[in-house]
Amino acid sequence: MTYYPEKRSSRENIPGSSRKKVEKKRVRKQIFISGGILTALFVSMLVYMVAYTAGNDRKLLENEYNGRESAMLSKNLRGKIFSADGEVLAQSKAGDDGKQVREYPQGKLFSHVIGYTAKGGSGVEKLENYQLIHSDLTLPEKAAYDDRNELYPGNDIYTSLDVKLQKACLNALGNHNGAVIVSEAETGRILAMVSNPDFDPEKVNADWDKYVGSIGDGAMVNRVSQGLYAPGSTFKIFDAIEFMDEDMNKAMAYTFDCPGYTTIDGEMINCYHCEVHGKVDLKASFAESCNSSFATIGTSLNRDAFKKTLDNMMFGEKLPYDMESAVSSFVLDDSTSTKEVMQLSIGQGQTLMSPLHLNMITQAIANGGIVHKATVVDKVTSASGTVLSQTKPEDYRTVMSSEVAQKMQEFMREVVVNGTATKLSTRPYNAAGKTGTAEFSTNTSDSNVWFTGYAYDDSHPKVAVTIIMEKTAGSGGAYAVPAVRDILDTYFGYTPEPGEDDDANYVHVINDHNGDGVPDNDGAAASNADEGSSKDTAALNIDTNGDGIMDAIDLNGDGDPDAVDTNGDGIPDTNVGGGATNTSGQNAAAAAGAAGTTGAQDNGQTGTQTQTNTQNSAAAGAGAQQDTAGVQTPGQQNTTATQNAGQQNTAGAQQTTGQNAAGTQNGTLTATQGTAGAQTGAEAQTGTQTGAAGAGTQQNTAGAQGEAAWSEADMQAAEAAAGQ
Amino acid sequence: MRTYILALTKYGIAGIVIAYTLVAFFLLLKNQDRDIEMRRALSSAELVLMLAFQILSYFTLFVALDNVRYILLCLAHTVVFLGVNLLYQNTFRHAHMPLFNNMCMLISAGIIILSRLDITRALKQFVMVCAGFVIAFALPFFRKKFYLLKKPGYIYAVLGVGALSIVMLLGATTLGANITYTIFGLTFQPSEFVKILYLLFLASTLRNVQDLKELAVITAFAAAHVLVLIGSKDLGSGLIFYMVFIFMAYMALDEWIILAGGFGAMALASVVLYHFFSHIQQRVQAFLDPWSLIDSIGYQITQALFAIGAGGPFGAGLGQGQPDKIPFVESDFIFAAVCEEFGIIIGICVVLLCVNCFMHMLSLSMTFADRFYRLLAFGSAVVYGFQAFLTLGGQTKFIPLTGVTLPLVSYGGSSILSTLILFTGIETMYMLRADKIEQRKRLERRRLAGSSRYSSNRQYRRQMPDLPDSRRTGGDRSDYRRYDAVSRRRYGD
Predict the structure, then answer these.
(1) How far apart are the first and last CA of chain B?
(2) A54 near A48, Cβ under 8 Å?
(3) Which ipTM value was assigned to this complex?
(4) Which residue in the set A17, A48, A56 is minimally distant from B492, CB to CB?
(5) pTM (predicted TM-score)
(6) What gap in Å lies between CA B234 and CA A498, rounded to an integer?
(7) From CA A299, how far away is CA A30, in angstroms rounded?
């Protein structure tokens, strides 16, 4: 009987003496092959095991089916969260019943960004949950806690947030809903992040149903990162970037003659308050926020290129931010109509952005074109202070060339120096930015106002600030800019002299009519007596024309009338309910101010001042605000200072113009407001108003004026006026 | 104070296990080294390390869980293992200590982790291990009669299939697989013992296989085993039996096509079986994406992964993790518990020790000149190695779960006994060979020492009375003759 393998080898006539060797060799080979296969399987398995657990250890621990996390919670005391300068923002205390209680010493101030721990958690509490429940103390330190029978304290998180700045942001918003974000332009660190309305993070469990149910309010939504709003005129940033990107020479040689409105392909669009900007180049268009100019630019841009640019600028994608954020969007393709493109150019229509997104773009402009990862956490340390990890600034993407960024910096600077944000020009620090007003309903007090910009001086790193205030009755320049100014004052440590700011209609704390920061002690008007400020009572009412009727108010107490108050009730004339009294004498102010000035500014900066007061409203074609009675000549801000607030007076006749509101998103809620611009009184809407789309232009005029808002005569008058 | 102790013991245990693993692999490399003294010294080092491991582990458990039973168990464990070890190496001159030490180390780790999970089970396991040691001792005494095992051939197969069929028809169902059988209150798993019968069957029939026809017959019987196992829904064992057949057939016939074809056929069969068994479909789904099925069929493997990931390199510490959250942790997921409490480093060492045992068995089989022993040893190696791979791979989500346990470590009396028999079988064969080598050397020496009286075998045999009695046992003579005759016929002189 021959063994099978030998049958084979015997064919080769191997001599008997070496058969043993041959067999040995054969066996060796077989064993090595078999052994090799199985060993390879084992080794691959080991490699897989190590790689899998090492790569997923945090995910595994955070899985809710993993009971070890709750075990860890009972072993460790949840770590603290600090602000950048070491103030405690969140801490835990061990209760007698073994449960830990989370405390927030700053109350509601950081409710959105720090978050809460209940119901799965949110904000930094959720982001750094792993570190907070782990304790990386050294052995001797742990032993010390064991001896005292105390829980090991978890690791601490140091954020980049600043308490003072956060407070300033919240105050700046005042009673308005909205969002503010302050960040470092060179590194992406977020210094302050406020969203209003807010909530009490210590009561999340108790008030859960209430908060979740308040759909209209969305208190728990972080409007900075999750709110989507129509960018309004701030979108002109993107128009300008694309324009320069396509052809820098053409962009630099660009000029436009603005008569206050423009018509493209039969679609008409107005500048804010139909203001006639005259001959403007790209820089001036930007600074003045000229809708007509940008509508022209917008429709001339190459759609594919523009779309690519916007995609590169993070539209349609998740932002480089570790916590949840909304995705900005726009609609632009071959089928988009001219009207829609015009709307897009002025940031209305279906365009939506989050404040965080706009802020990151602003940072990029400020630092030469690079978007950095937005971070809130600076470092993680053990409870005894040993640094475990330090966040380093991370470049995310280059969104514009440094040349374009340079130009944008110049433009933004011009906005402050000569344009719609001159309220910031009086400060020793250098500020630059862009205002925006997005009107979203027919109600005149329904605009969302934006400001986004940056500031720097010799001793502070560059900061980028973005603010949106919902439902204000005015423009970005009137509301958002002063708010930003207060925030930047806090950052740079600048205290304004009393009376230095002449914000006629900006009340950053409700009812602070003389703008000294101290609230009026009553809401209604009659006395405006602020606590302790003689200025308030003294120069309050003035009688400018000497007829014995108080018809003006001197808000800053320097003796010159700042605002018209025809019914002498102490409140600058505004529309609502002012009643007939407000209407009369209106034009007195107009007479007072020469072309284009409103009585509002009496510090002599007529021309320019008024500019600041006119905000380029986002609404397309914010139409003319006319003040009824009497002749309205376009191009003039007649009326009162209230103009700036965008409040129009008059009872009755006044119409607002088509407000088209883009649907504003409040967090996840799409508050689509705004339908077509309503027209009261007479008619004519030329142009259509439709809700979200808002094209809008309309003029309505009261009474006498019939159809088209602008008659030939008016237009000529406008031009004439503009010519001055 | 307690904190320091628990931390120190964690690192201490890791150090000991790493040291043991290094020594084990060093010994493997120096397998054929002539320096016996060095090898003896290293084996003694292994013994010392193992005892240190046991003592430190039980001490940790005592400090962490505050239970005096751990100290008692420690005493019993240490004394028994030390005693068995010393007894073993001194009773059998040619005992292969590296393999024996590894076996003891793995068993110890098993008992320790079981005592952390469930002391009662640990005690039961300890008792079974002691019974196993008795068998381990008995077997080498019968080594002179081992040759008798070569004869039965197909009878083994008949017995094996028969036993498996009985289980399939009458056995109790554990989670859909009929694998256990209870007699007189003791639950045992026949497939574990049939494994041994199956190995004997394959070794005895394949050792003289002459042509493919004979191979076909052998294949048919092997297939019968596999089919009955599949019929009992014990798919893991079925897979092991199949793999063993493929590798042993390859070893016997030296045709690589057997390996290639075997793996190919397995792939094909898996696909077919996948369609027929919902059981398999579930296992595959749970393997591919357990996270979305985490509250149903993915539960076991995800809990195991949580545990493996939770320990970190040095583990949570004995008694300080939560391995009890893993379902079936004592049997199917013992490795996950080891990783959680001992740490990934020790987990890797355990895997490496299994590989080390496997490699030792392979290298031993390589040295056996006798085909039967060679095939038997090789088959044992494959059985052990492949089963270890299946269970470890399943627990780490490298392959789908197959329902087999980790030999020597997992809880299970039948498994311990059968694996001990396997290991000791190889030890015995090694001793047989060592005996023969020694015999030949002595003969050689005598021959060289001169005296023509010893120049031929026949003369030597007549001189038998000269040999010291201790060197002579009954079977020695006939074995020697047979060996010599065979070798002369086959390989010439």
Answers:
(1) 72
(2) no
(3) 0.86
(4) A17
(5) 0.66
(6) 88
(7) 77
